[in-house]
Amino acid sequence: MEAIQTQMCKTPNGWKAETVVDFAEWQILTITTRKNGLSNRLLSTATVSTTLESGLTSYVMCYGFGKGDFSATLLDCSVPRATEKAIRAQHQIALASLDKIKADAVRHYAEQARLAAAEGREATAN
């Protein structure tokens, strides 16, 4: 099993937990738990981004069309206070689903590849 390291840090909006794991060549999967800035809720999300040759990270957003990079809301919970302890506990719950999250991301990119291949066949048929 791969070693998983979580970084905890205090931000202007409160505590944040972040875990980064290798996903695919040039891609990383990031699990983040933080206070939602608009409410007193804890939000845990998963995103896949690409590390460019320059070392910068790229994330393609495409709302509702399935063409962007993988993104999922894992947990969205109400808490009395977004303490370090609460953030850490929810983050551990989110990480317990890491294998499922990876499988969902693999399906996301497989579906993109399938749709791209189908679009290519349609273009050559016309």
Explain what you see:
- By secondary structure, this protein is an alpha+beta fold.
- The protein is 32% helix and 37% strand.
- The chain is built from two helices and six strands.
- The protein has helices spanning 84-95, 98-125, and strands at residues 6-11, 14-24, 27-35, 41-51, 57-58, 71-78.
- Strands 1, 2, 3, 4, 5 and 6 form a six-stranded antiparallel β-sheet that branches.
- A hairpin with a 5-residue loop joins strand 4 and strand 5.
- The longest helix is centred in the C-terminal third of the chain and has 28 residues, at 98-125.
- The radius of gyration is 17 Å and the shape is elongated.
- The termini are far apart.
